[in-house]
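Researcher: Go.
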Amino acid sequence: MKPLLSKTTRPFLIFVMIVLVFSIPVYYFVVDAIWQDELDEHNEIVAEKTGYEFNKMNASIEEIQSSITLWNHIQPGTNIEKITSNHLRKDSLFTAEKYKPFSADPTIERYRCLKKVIYIKKQPYLFTIETNIEETEGTVMIIGLITFFFFLLIVTGLFILNRRLSKTIWKPFRNTLDKLKNFNLNTQTQIEFDKTDTTEFEELNQSLRKLITHNVSVYKSQKEFTENASHELQTPLAILKNKLDLLLQDVNLTERQYDIAEEMNRALTRSSRINKNLLLLAKIDNSQFDNSEIIKLDDLLHQSLDVFNEHFEQKNISVTENISSGIKVNGNSGLTEVLINNLILNAIRHTSRDGAISVKLTNSVFEVANSGTEKLNTDLLFKRFSKLSADNSGSGLGLAIISEICKFHHWTINYKFENNLHIFSVKL
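Model: Structure:
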């Protein structure tokens, strides 16, 4: 994951770099065209000025011709040639490439040329002038370097300015985010967001206030419902069970009546267990448990194994223990005890007589394995009221409760079937 600032800055830098790269040839052609236009204008002025000066001279034709010959010898890049009226031509502008005259440098250079007919003493002459235009490349290079310098200056300035502005602009958002991270629904208190002059952040805070108010209200209603259900449902269920127990002790019951009462008692016991488990799931979903306790997991595991020792003996199950000592975790001791008991009880229920169960505990994993013959359906494994065997004594919520307790503690529950063993492991 990347911060928002880097996600906006990087595309900006790439875009500016692309523009800079494409601007270099544009600079070259534009500057070259401007330079050639300026040289053409310069050459026109030189040709006109030369004709004007010669015409202004108070000299004979022979003296002027002698001056022109001298001009052609001493003035580089220009040439004045007498032509006849039959060879008059339009002015022409063109670019020529040739070696630099009067130099040993073999480099070929470009010249901007002008051929123009001028009149000296009413006689036509072809005036040719060539001006070097290689300065264009140097000019473009200098412009490019200056542009690149200012590009770096602008990008660096924008980057620094953007970072500083982002800290100021996004400060209300970060304050809101920090308060949301520290918000606990169990406290049922409203969050007081800081005032901000940014419209979007103020709208966000208002929406969050409404959302939190609604969630707190719903949470209170759900909590009241679970508490009321816990008291109101358990009481009649307990009364019914006591009445059935008394009825089962009546010596006047016929065998038929006793069987019916026994079936009712089993159904009522299962209903009571399902009710307790559903209430437990509701409380877990509503985050009604504290998870700040330091739990001695090895001690808790030993206590649970002692409780189930009678069950092991009834089915003649051999138990293998590999429990490290001094294992401590942060969480809720009550829920952790439920998780341990459900895993062991699930293993006992699905282990045939004379089977085997192994329990393992390390710093990173708690594992319960039991012997079996066929892999369980992983799609239904942790779903509520899913039946993985023909045993109807369970509520169908044991593994679902285990999964929810793991989510509450931020643990991970996994299942695998290896070497005829069902292995449930909790990664702490």
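Model: The radius of gyration is 48 Å.
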